[in-house]
Amino acid sequence: MKFLRGEGTVTEKNMAEALKMLRLALLEADVNYRVVKDFEARIREKALGEEVLRSLSPAQQVIKIVRDEMTGILGGRQKPLIFASRPPSVFMLVGLQGSGKTTTCGKLARWVSGLPKSPLLVSFDLKRPAAQDQLKTIAGSLGLPFYEMTAARMASPKEALKDLLLAASNKGYDPLIVDTAGRLHVDEDLMAELRLVKDILAPAETIYVGDAMTGQDAVRSAQAFEDRIGLTSVILTKLDGDARGGAALSIVSVTGRPIKFIGVGEKPDKLEVFHPERMASRILGMGDVLSLIEKAEEGADREEAEELARKLRKQEFTLEDFKKQIVQMKKMGSFADLLGHLPQVGPLKGLSKVQVDDRKIAHFEAIINSMTPDERQDPRALDGSRRRRVARGSGRPVHEVNQLVKQFLEMRKMLGKPQVRKMLGGLK
């Protein structure tokens, strides 16, 4: 809602311009046009109401309304997985071929094993028995159990599924994560096979796995699976940035089923719990700082994290602290991915588009290691001769030493801005 920023009041005219920009942004993000039309009408009605028009900061009120409405469409709040009252709980994953369904089975099994649970993986595809080879390999790489559907078992599908339930129950596995058949398009043979599996296994969760990059195709197939099989939830794969938010909005709107996880990469640990309010903020360019903090907390010492937050607020951040964060963040993934979680407004605008070479980060670490403790505390003490000494010690050219010092001082200056300090004030 950039058009409203700086406006003293909300009027029919500037509201119409703001909604036009919002509509174009959502359509470009591949949001279903019916969803956009309904969303726009709800925003207009609320934004031109008495409470907003009398507000001291109407533009902020409208932005809040947009974010809240988008959060509402996305499900309002995070929805947990449903486990059966009597184990084993069955999670049946469905979707088209190429959506990342098999890989997602492995990611989900890894995630639930941390609850802790004892998942069992199985692949059931009557036309392609060899399809289970991929899941078997994934299970082996994760050190998780895999139930093999042999050709003899597959010859009697009903009996095979009943034997599967009995084996899982007898060995205490919970949940049972079932990879099912996929096709390049929805057809009756596929639906008949999926209905057979669902009728016998009675899954606690029937999860549609959709490729967010397919846009409207993901929406149409999700609707087909909902209408003909019945879904309980959704996992979106390849949702690695706010440009993919359109598929999330559309699928939830047309199916009425919540998104519970998003896949943000190929590796087994790249499955994240879906938080509607955070996705709404990312779509609107407000960032996803909470998810970034959670990434840091996974491998961070709590006391160190609190000390870092204090230093950031007090503008006492040094190159020594910066080096510690380089080491910590290298464990969290690429820097480009981390920058993508930051707000794209105000002083942080455009950071997600910054091209960061992870090798250069390693060079920066080497340069800092070549400095004395006093130089790390105050890099302004680095005169020409000291910088040449640091360059020799790190094996990097002088211009890279100059670049590091310049960027660090600019970053520290940015951290001192009121808007950023206010945001950092929420870190405890």
Q: What do these coordinates show?
A:
This protein is 55% helix and 9% strand. It is an alpha/beta fold. The chain folds into 3 domains: 2-73, Up-down Bundle (Four Helix Bundle (Hemerythrin (Met), subunit A)), CATH 1.20.120.140; 90-286, P-loop containing nucleotide triphosphate hydrolases (Rossmann fold); 290-424, 434 Repressor (Amino-terminal Domain). The protein has an 8-stranded mixed sheet with strand order 3-2-4-1-5-6-7-8, with helices on both faces. The relative contact order is 0.09. The model is unreliable at 341-355 (pLDDT under 50).
Structural class: alpha/beta
**In oligomeric terms, what are we looking at?**
single chain
> Can you tell me the overall shape?
globular
CATH-defined topology of the largest domain: Rossmann fold
At the first level of CATH, the class of the largest domain is Alpha Beta
Mean of all residue-level pLDDT scores: 79
Element pattern in H and E: HHHHEHEHEHHEHEHEHEEHHHHHHHHHH
Strand percentage lies at 5-15%
**How many domain regions?**
3
